[in-house]
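Kindly go through the entry underneath: sequence plus fold tokens. Please state briefly how this chain folds according to its tokens.
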Amino acid sequence: KGLHIASDTILHLGINKQHDKLWAYNANSLYLYDKRQDKTKKMAHGMANISEAHISDEFIYLISESGMLKAINVNTLSVMEVPMPEWVLTHISGQTPMLYVDGSGGLWVHTFQNSKLYYKRNQSTNWKEITLSPDQNLFNRVRDITEDQNGNIWIITSHLGAFILKPGSEDIQHFTNNPF
């Protein structure tokens, strides 16, 4: 009963919004715990060097160090690759890409090593680069992405404060704090 995973490396954990599915992963393995069934399943995914995993209502998304992105259907367990264009891979490969899936199924990919942020509204749309600052000479690292109860996407950066993208809008609101 419960979640039991043997691992000789650090496990990363996450939970879906309904709090009925928990996932755990390390660089090479992914496990899904279903609270309703009280079962843990090791998931086949065919990917090495998992950088991050995120679960949505339908899919568990995995992104590797090389920038490969896969989606595992949580109901059928089928695995499919989510195509990543070369112009995105050039900037994220080997940069520990991070992944966020918003409440609408939008995919957000960023790295902490550079200032790049990419967004894909759903699996049938194209990737686009999100520019947070018009001054591309400013050094800015995306630290975290989260969503509030109104569907606003909050992007927290290391040097330029926080940014909010409102749902269905291209407008970016910028917040800074300078205590000096």
Notes: Residues 118 and 129 are 4 Å apart (CA to CA). The chain is about 5% helix and 40% strand. The two ends are 53 Å apart (CA to CA).
